[in-house]
Amino acid sequence: MRHGGLLYLDELNAAEADVLLRLDEALDDRRQIILKEADGQIINAHHDWSVIATINPLSHVGTKELPPQILSRFPIRLRLEYPPEEIELEIVQRHTTVDISKINDIKRAIKLAKNLREAAAVEELYYSPSLRESIAFAKLLNAGSNAKQAAEIVYANAYDQWGEVEYQKVMDMITSIFVD
């Protein structure tokens, strides 16, 4: 803040109220923070200091609605969707070595992830897998797991915490996609 640069805040709508209060103070028109715990020291923002933040949909566990005054501090907002399946495959290939013989299994895992995301978007499921899961799936394949086993480890096991019904929904999707 003192020296300029960029502050990146991930999942801002999961932050505690006291963090949001300090952020509000830093981003208001004065662009300063008064550190009461440091004898009232004032930190003024450098003119080149900027803040970028991400939020998750309110359907994600642990997220909450942001107060309007915080939202107003971020006048430029972009909505990002998951990339198309072919781009997700490219991202997986950048993060792990993909054996060409495993490409179809990875494409099926990406299709599964897309289906799970769509189900979460309409609140049929509690969780929406990220690209991290697609990458983890590819890494398990490279380590010798078969596709169905890797899908169960990476995708289905995440849903077990919400009970047998959630887990079984995902296992049914895995079984339909990874037919031996």
What number is the mean pLDDT? 92
User: How many distinct helices?
Assistant: 7
* Overall number of strands: 4
List unreliable stretches of 5+ residues.
Answer: none
Overall structural domain count:
2
Walk me through what this model shows.
This protein has helices at residues 17-27, 68-71, 85-95, 103-121, 131-142, 147-159, 164-177; strands at residues 5-9, 32-35, 41-44, 49-53. A hairpin with a 5-residue loop joins strand 2 (32-35) and strand 3. It folds into two domains: 5-71, Rossmann fold (3-Layer(aba) Sandwich), CATH 3.40.50.300; 85-177. The model has no long low-confidence stretch (mean pLDDT 92). The strands form two sheets. Strands 1-4 form a two-stranded parallel ribbon. The chain has a two-stranded antiparallel sheet with strand order 2-3. The protein is 47% helix and 10% strand. It is mainly alpha-helical and 180 residues long. Helix 3 crosses helix 4 (103-121) and helix 4 (103-121) packs antiparallel against helix 5 (131-142). It is elongated and about 65 Å long.
